[in-house]
Amino acid sequence: MQDTFGYLPDGTPVTRFTLRNPLGTEVQLMTYGAAIVACKTRDRDGSFGDIALGFSDLDSYVNHSAYFGAVVGRYANRIANAHFSIDGRTYALAANDGSHHLHGGRRGFDKHVWNAKTFEREERRGVTFFRVSPDMEEGYPGNLAVQVQYTLTNGDELVVDYAANSDAPTAVNLTQHTYFNLAQASAADVLDHCVQINASAFTPVTEGLIPNGEIVPVDGTAFDLRTEIAIRESIDQPDDQLRLARGYDHNFVLDRTDGGLVPAARLLEPTTGRTLEVSTTEPGLQFYTGNFLDGTLQGKSGRLYGRRSGLCLETQHFPDSPNRSRFPCTILRPGKALATRTVFRFGIAAHAQS
After folding, report:
1. Beta bridge mates, 175
2. How high is the pLDDT of residue 112?
3. Is 233 helix (H, G, I), strand (E, B) or coil?
């Protein structure tokens, strides 16, 4: 099903698509930002609720830069001092986060209307979004053809496939930036969510939340989330990294032995029983606990989104990789194709946890 979600100031229509599987799970997507507008899943009692933060109207998406539900690019996360070099040539990017570059710049992929095609196959249905990011858009070289495909399966999985190619060497790092709250509107924050992240290391940050270039074991730190723990039990520990970010806003180095799909993270909301499992082909995951939401944005049903009212699990390459030779490479060259996959699996825990 599709309808018109709204119109941009220049009259461009924005289309909303609704995907629904036989279990009743529903995902709404729109062409503005190739974004997830809503994600309705059932709780332990069989009641459905929207677990994705966002706005009720298009104007709010246009006028605010919270990245709710959007595909983020050309480079997700931060690039230090808004520049990088390829083959000896330096490219200056938009400095939209102090002196640094964040989530693709002043008008990243989240602020564009994408083209879209729907599809339906046996036991799955979805939408493919695509656009061409022109040469030097936000300072990035090369004409980059991008495709993002969302597939909702009968097994309650939302599969996100990213693909891209470029006619010149460029930096690319794409992610999905949905803020989740598995308690729906019944809780003011996500602190009672239990989280597990399959990462034995993380990349510490400096002021400005730029990686310092190190890859550090999580052992004995507040970043050892390999065993499930309630967020409130770890987020306010006396830790300099948590202080810098006002909570979690860090890249975790996922445990993997190859480049295939691996389990990255699991969430459990004990009251509703909802779970969310994330697997990915990406090397990292940015765990962000909504630290900079401040109650000024009015979301769905008039709700004001305060600090830590949602969290993000952004599968990605590492921040500032173009300037960090030790990090996995994010330079895409002509003749090569980017192809990554992330899977969000919705579920229900059998029993409440005490």
Report:
1. 72
2. 98
3. helix
Q: Is the pLDDT of residue 248 over 70?
A: yes
What is the pLDDT, as a whole number, of residue 267? 98
With left for phi above 0 and alpha for psi between -120 and 50, is residue 77 left, alpha or beta? left
Share of the chain above pLDDT 70, in %: 98
Nearest to 145 by CA among 162, 161, 158: 162
Q: Hey, which residues are catalytic here? A: 177, 314
Residues 49 and 294 sit within 8 Å (Cβ to Cβ): no
Name all domains of the chain by residue range, CATH numbers in brackets.
2-348 (2.70.98.10)
Residue closest to 146 by CA, chosen among 342, 344, 340, 343? 340
> For residue 153, what are its two tokens?
């399966």
The answer to whether 273 touches 349, Cβ cutoff 8 Å, is yes
pLDDT in tens, 164-207: 999 999 999 999 999 999 998 667 899 999 999 999 999 999 99
User: What distances in angstroms separate CA 277 from CA 27, 263, 270, one per listed residue?
Assistant: 16, 8, 15
